[in-house]
Amino acid sequence: MAKSGVIYGINGPIVTILGDVGFQMHEMVHVGAQKLVGEVIALASGKTTVQVYEETAGMRPGEPVVGTGAPISVTLAPGILNNIFDGIERPLSSLKEINPIYIERGAAVDALDHSKKWETHLTVKNGDSLFGGAIIAMVPETPAVTHKIMLPPDAEGVVCDAVPDGEYTIDDTLLQIKGRDGKLRPITMTQKWPIREARPISKRFPATVPLVTGQRILDTLFPLAKGGTAAVPGGFGTGKTMTQHQIAKWSDADIIIYIGCGERGNEMTQVLEEFTELIDPKSGNPLMDRTTLIANTSNMPVAAREASLYSGLTLAEYYRDMGYDVAIMADSTSRWAEALREISGRLEEMPAEEGFPAYLASRLSAFYERSGMTQNLSGTEGSITIIGAVSPQGGDFSEPVTQNTKRFVRCFWGLDKNLAYARHYPAIQWMTSYSEYLQDLAPWYTKQVDPKFVDYRNRLVYLLTQESSLMEIVKLIGGDVLPDDQKLVLEIAKVIRLGFLQQNAFHKEDTCVPMSKQFRMMEIILYLYKKSRSLISMGMPMSVLMQDGIFDQVVSMKYDIPNDKPEMFDEYRERIDKFHDAVIARNG
Amino acid sequence: MAIEYLGLSAINGPLVVLEGVENAAFDEIVEMIVDGNRRQLGRVIEVYKDKAVIQVFGGTEGMALRNTHTRLTGRPLELGVSVEMLGRTLNGIGAPIDGLGDIDPEKFLDVNGKPLNPVSREYPRNYIRTGISAIDGLTTLIRGQKLPIFSGNGLPHDQLAAQIVQQASLGDAPGASDDGATGPGGEDSGGADDGASFAIVFAAMGVKHDVADFFRRTFEESGALSHVAMFLNLANDPVVERLITPKVALTLAEYLAFEKGMHILVILTDMTSFAEAMREISSSKGEIPSRKGFPGYLYSELATVYERAGIVRGLPGSVTQIPILTMPNDDITHPIPDLTGYITEGQIVLDRALHGQSVYPPISVLPSLSRLMKDGIGKGFTREDHQDVANQLFSSYAKVGEARALASVIGEDELSDVDKKYLAFGLAFEQRFVGQDPLENRTIFQTLDIGWELLRMLPKSELDRIDTKLLDAHYAEADTAQTPPGA
């Protein structure tokens, strides 16, 4: 039944078969005596090329390659959350049972637990007429998330033989669907979906709601919309992973898919350990309850690295279809691009820039375009937000991956080496970063936070821009010769940098800051600026203003004012008033 | 099984092509007999039906198309591992070269290793005290970490690595002034019990004879030699062998750590030679180069070396890696240091300018980083104020650079008072905090106290990275007591 061929040549993860044995493009195949998972990536009449998702050492020409008849897919059913998978959805905890320390090759394990019984509540009854993608049952997957069982997108018809509520495994038939042709189709909780194919949706909405992350520089200066795309490029040590971790921890998404693509093993362990302990402030449950990790660490097979991004994306789409806001952290897309390059090199394709294949840009755009705020087939609304880390070679943003990514994302958080050297974290450079969502989100901020929010935000950015141009002068002639009003701009910009932009991920209060506090902080800083400017215009020198230490107090308000005590901001306002009056009294 | 093939169909640099073979496996090891007497090992790196491309470890000198007999072994390259390898000197593929006889292996292991399952890993948290302020204070080394030294030719990276090896100990227990367990080189008696489970695996790839000798001598002088397994592939040894040397060394390290429960410190020098060897082989294979002629899989290959470090949950041992690499032309954006930095958990960068000012160790602190530091320091590990002091030193020293740039334009006299203080701070920081004697072994408390001493040179309002409470507690110390701490 299954088509099969024999191996002709082996070069790293690339295996070739002479002739055409009838495999389809992207078909999943089992390669060699060890039955390693592979995928058909090129077909010619004389030659079939397969990439193998595992180490091929020890494989010999002449060994069989057996087709499965289906493209490489992920299994979608309850049990995905609070789990860690490799790039082709094999749970690492099951692999651990096979070898307690290392990952063995050719280990055949099920993606999800087939024996576990889930408490199921059916939301449809016999005789209901359903369309593809409709929600048929609810399963509490974790304490934080209810898994909504849906019909496969291509199933349509009338419900028959629905089972009563109770405990079922993911393979049990919950109901039958009688199609127009009168045939019965049994429906279980499980769906298989090819990873390279986007799941269908009804329509897309424009982005109007921000993904609130609790990170001031992101939420206030360069906001990302739910359903949007952002890139975080930065050289090593600038804090890409840290930024991703912070968003994964504190953002208000319902589901987090964290893809560790070609990164460090210890980092995945850290996420796993930390997220199991950390409590989600919204639901009161461990963060892992809403998180799935996909780990293809840098020493795991390169072909699976290429697949890991698509696996993660497909899982995300599945949860989006249930009506959840999903955020994907892809750390790092450069490793994925390098995996493309490595495979392309072994296929002896003509390279474009820096050895990357010419289709790099189209693959990147296809990836980022699977994001979006959508109306789903089930009638619910959900979103996929993609945050991709980019690791530019030599920290140089002009390299192909960064440049091509910039074309397809609308939010760019550029990390800066010098800020990182000075341990200014998050090291997001405010002059080079941008967000195209600002206009789209302005109504939300006006309505949900404060009508003055956008105005304040723009004034903050303006002050920082002024600082940047003044610093050019300071670098040449020193700060002492500047007039006092310009000195004030420098001081206020310093307050903004230290007191607002800089955020301590290890501080209990500062690690995640609500929007209202972000707004009040801006307000106080700008109020300080206003009052100081009035003093300067009265002819007070900057040195007099600095004596009271009010600037330092405003800088440390991020620590001194707890997140749940916004009324303390009024006290700061009074302090600034007092400072204003005291300076006048002393020097007036 | 034991079919011998006579002759080759092509020889190109370190690669040979064998045709008419049956059943050759990808990545298997072949044995070759050249001229009837010389034995060579090779590895199958590409295979097509009856044709195999073989990479010869020992180089192809003296090989002819007709004088070579090849035999397939049917196995990947394996290393016979044994605790007895400690104290021995071996060549780049693990054969003894010290004339002390053969090693009786306890087990044979595939040198390619397997990826550690992230679920099995334990996140490293125990800090290793090196006694070097710039490392302990600012880029703390954690047991199970991979922390490379980025150096340049002519810089004292070897001395630094040797000093780390000699002084490395398991941290100062908070509150206790005494040393904890000591490394093999420590002269303290405390090393007696824990010292037995601490060993060093040293791998040299393409280093000069002098360098290998320096390490051997240093290990000998400190009495550590019996705890060191040395794998040597010197500069004039075959290039292909270099590709295997770190893997061989790490195979032994993993065995000792995870099967024998030892704490292993692996020193790999020089990773640049390893990467260069990869480029050489890649180009003779005719592969499409990516950056600077290096193959596209440089990242993956480096990762398979560097990722073989860590701690496994529930097992007593650990593998800590200190790879050394020389940055070609001191360029940190060169592909080798660049890709290394993306894989390793931080880096220690050496600086030629500091070396020129006779600062030892010449660690350029700003680009140096330890990613695991944040979870292994502070209350319960080192001292409560550690993170804040480190942040403040980084931040203040970054400002020193700005003040210096300004001074070089407008002259030192024209600087503001604060900037002048920064200049003085910068100099003192380099001389007293970074700089220390090659034999000086500072405790973490000494290191932090020196840090405070230096920070007091700056006005309190400039110290914006330190928690107000800590600042009040420590900054005032000198004002009131006037006692130089750490004395």
Descriptive account of the structure:
The complex is a heterodimer of chains A (588) and B (487). By secondary structure, chain A is an alpha+beta fold. Chain A is 35% helix and 22% strand. Chain A is built from 17 helices and 26 strands. In chain A, the strands form 5 sheets. In chain A, strands 8, 18, 19, 20, 21, 22, 23, 24, 25 and 26 form a 10-stranded mixed sheet that branches. In chain A, strand 11 and strand 12 (146-150) form a beta hairpin. In chain A, helix 11 (453-477) crosses helix 13 (515-537). Chain A is globular, with a radius of gyration of 28 Å. The termini of chain A are far apart. Chain B folds into 3 domains: 4-76, Elongation Factor Tu (Ef-tu), domain 3; 79-375, Rossmann fold (3-Layer(aba) Sandwich), CATH 3.40.50; 386-480, no CATH class. Chain B has helices spanning 133-138, 157-167, 191-195, 209-221, 239-259, 271-285, 298-306, 335-343, 352-356, 373-376, 386-410, 417-434, 444-455, 468-481; strands at 4-6, 10-12, 15-19, 29-34, 38-48, 51-56, 68-72, 78-81, 89-91, 107-110, 121-122, 127-128, 141-142, 149-151, 198-207, 228-234, 263-269, 311-312, 318-326, 346-349, 369-370. The longest helix of chain B is centred in the last third of the chain and has 25 residues, at 386-410. The radius of gyration of chain B is 25 Å and the shape is elongated. Chain B starts with a strand and ends in a 6-residue tail after the last helix. Mean pLDDT of chain B is 87; it is low at 173-196 and 479-487. Strand 1 (4-11) of chain A pairs antiparallel with strand 5 (38-48) of chain B.
